[in-house]
Write a structure and sequence with these properties.
- The protein has 142 residues and is mainly alpha-helical.
- It contains six helices and no strands.
- The chain is elongated.
Length: 142
């Protein structure tokens, strides 16, 4: 499972480049990543760069929303568990319902953790944003 920001980088630059960028991050070769992204982006028009920036901002907003909603998902999970323990259902129904709830909550927890602690993806997105801003500011000057 890849974070939302990682999916954006894979969509924009491909899986192969994304893996190369992650490897370069481990080697602390951030300037190489910036130069590569900058070179790729120079082939785009100002309109296309603006759409990419808008897409980037929407993806970051979605990533933050996933983190914010996890609190409510956790409260809902707790209330659902209490609900199933308090009502007089058959034990088989309670176990099945709690099993399904636990699976869903586990998936949401993994999704939350992937998006919350995706340091490499955040660094890549910051480099990408810097390259976009640099190109857009250069094109506004001309």
């Amino acid at each position: 499972m890849v974070s939302i920001l990682g999916k954006l980088m894979q969509k924009e630059f491909g899986r192969k480049r994304y893996k190369e960028y992650c490897a370069k991050l481990k080697k602390k070769e951030c300037m190489d990543i910036f130069c590569d992204i900058y070179f790729v982006l120079t082939k785009n028009s100002e309109e296309h760069l603006s759409r990419r920036l808008l897409n980037l901002l929407q993806t970051v907003e979605l990533s933050v929303t996933v983190s914010r909603l996890f609190r409510y998902i956790s409260m809902g999970f707790g209330l659902a568990v209490i609900f199933f323990f308090c009502l007089p259902f058959l034990p088989e129904i309670q176990i099945a319902a709690l099993g399904i709830l636990l699976l869903l909550y586990s998936y949401k927890t993994i999704e939350f953790l992937k998006n919350r602690y995706c340091d490499k993806d955040v660094k890549l997105v910051l480099i990408y944003k810097s390259a976009l801003f640099h190109l857009l500011s250069d094109e506004e000057k001309t």
